[in-house]
Amino acid sequence: MRTEQDLDAGLKSPSKRVLNWLPTRMRWNSIYRKLFITYLALTALGTSFLAAYILWSFHGYFMRSRQADINTWANALSESVAEALAEDDLARATVTVQRYGQSEAVTLRIFNPQGRLLATSAPDQDRQVLNWLEVPGIAAALQKRATQGVAKGVLSNDDRLYSTVPIIRNGEFLGVLRMSITLEQFQRQFRNVALTVLGTLALTVVLCALISEWLARNMARPIQAMRNFAIQIGSGHLGEELSIQQADELGQLATELNRMSKRLASLDKERRAFLASVSHELRTPVSNVLVTVEALKSGASEEPELRDRFIQTVEDETKRLARLIHDLLDLGRLEAGVAPLEQQPVNLRDLVNRAVRAVESRMQSKGIGIQMDVANMQSQGDPERLLQAFMNILDNAIKHSIPDTQVFVVGRSQNGEAIVTIRDQGPGISEAALPHIFEQFYTADPSRQGSGTGLGLAIARRIVEAHQGTITAISPPGKGATFRIKLPCTNPAALAKANGVAE
C-alpha cells in the first residue's frame, strides 16, 4: 500500500524520472501555489475591506458627532450673544466670546449684519483678514442661512470644523456667529487608530497566511499524491494502492483510482495470460503441421497409407488453426464492442431448436440423447449471435457427456427474464475450476478438456452479456454441469402462465 509520502518519493529514482521532482512549495505552477495565493488573496482582500470600512465608519461617526456638538454650541451661544446685541451691550458679547473661545482649539467670531467683525477670540490673527466674505460660511450666514462643514483655517492650512449661524432675536437680524474647532487632535487620534487597525490587519494577514499555507498544503498533498499515482499507473506500475483516508470527494477519487489500478492490473494479467495461451495454442498446430510436412518431404509421401494419415493430420491441424483464429477474432470483436448486434425480436424456443438440430448428428454419433422443454419466450437481440452462444454451451455439454446419457434443455420465464438451463450428465466441474471456466483457454480441469479451442464458453459469456444477460454454471459433485442463461424477456405478460425454473 502506497502512502502519500511514498508516492512523492517513488518516482525520484533515475529509472522513474517522469517529472523534475521539486518540493511542492518550490513548484510555482503547482496547485499548492494556486490554492495558497487564492486563500491569501481572499483573506487579504476581505480583511482590507473590513479595515477600510471600520476606519471610514469611525471617521464618519466622529465627524458627525463633532459637527452636531459644534452646531449645538453655536446655537446656544448665538442666543446668549443675541441678547447682548439687542441691548447694544457689545462688551458683554465680547466677554462671552473670550470666555468660550480658545485661540487655537476653538475660535468664536461675531459679525454685524454688514459682515464687519465685532468680536473675536483670536484678535491678533483676525486683524490680518481684509475680506471676511471670503471665509467659508460668512456670506451664506449674512443671507440668514446656517452653514457647516470642514474648511481650512482663516490664516492657516490646518483643517477645522465650523458652524456659522445667523443671530436673530424677535425676528430682527442682529448679525452672524461663526464657531470653528481644530481637527488636529482628532486627526492625530485617527492616525493612531489607523495605525492600530493596520497593524492588526497585518497581523491578521500573517496569521491567515499561515492558516492558508496549512489549508493549501493539506489540500494539495492528496492531489499531488494522486497525480504521482496516476503517473505511476501511466508508466505501467499497476496494482499499487493509494492510501488517502478522507471522507470527501478527494477520498472518493482516491478510492476510484485504487479500483482503477486494481482493474488495470487484473486486465494486464489477463492480457499476459491471454497472449501466453494464444502463443501456446497457435504453436501446437503449427508445430504439428511443420513436423508432418518435414516427414512428407523426408520420404513418407512414398507410402500411400502413411501419406494419407499425414495429409489428414495437416488438414485437421489447419482446421483447428482456422477455428482458433475465427474464435479469437469473434472474441476480440465482442470484447472491443465493435461486433454489431442486430436488434430484433427473437423467439428463444425456435432458437434453441435450431441449436439442437445443428448439433444433433454429433450427439447421435456419441450416443447422447437430449430432452427439451422450452416455453414460448420472446427476447430482443441478434439471433445469430445468440444461436452461437447456445451452440457453444451445447457443444461443451456434448464433449463432456458420458455415452448413453442425456442432455436436458429447459426454458422458462420468471420475473421478466427468459431462463434457459442446459444440464449434462458428465463428470462435472471441480470446485477449484468452476470460477475460471469462462476464461479464455482455461483447461486446468482434465475432466473438462476437449478438442476445441478453449474459447467457446468465453465467447458465449461475451454474447450473453452484450444482450444485457448473465450466464452462470453450477456443478454438484458427480452430477454433471448445469449452465443457466438469463436474458431480458420482452413479453412477460404473455408468458405469465409459465412457472418454475429448471434447476
UniProtKB/TrEMBL annotation:
Spans traversing the lipid bilayer: 36-56, 193-216
Entry-linked Pfam families: HAMP, HATPase_c, HisKA
Protein known as: histidine kinase
Superkingdom as given in the UniProt entry: Bacteria
PROSITE patterns per the UniProt record, alphabetical: HAMP, HIS_KIN
Enzyme class, broadest EC rank: transferase
Domain Histidine kinase, residue spans: 277-491
Compartment(s): Cell membrane
Membrane topology field: Multi-pass membrane protein
Keywords assigned: ATP-binding, Cell membrane, Kinase, Membrane, Nucleotide-binding, Phosphoprotein, Transferase, Transmembrane, Transmembrane helix, Two-component regulatory system
Gene3D superfamilies: 1.10.287.130, 6.10.340.10, Histidine kinase-like ATPase, C-terminal domain
Domain HAMP: 217-269
UniProt source species: Trichocoleus desertorum GB2-A4
Database matches in InterPro entries: HAMP_dom, HATPase_C_sf, HATPase_dom, His_kinase_dom, HisK_dim/P_dom, HisK_dim/P_sf, Sensor-like_sf, Sig_transdc_His_kin-like_C
GO function term, MF aspect, one: ATP binding
Catalytic reaction equation(s): ATP + protein L-histidine = ADP + protein N-phospho-L-histidine
The EC number(s) this enzyme carries: 2.7.13.3
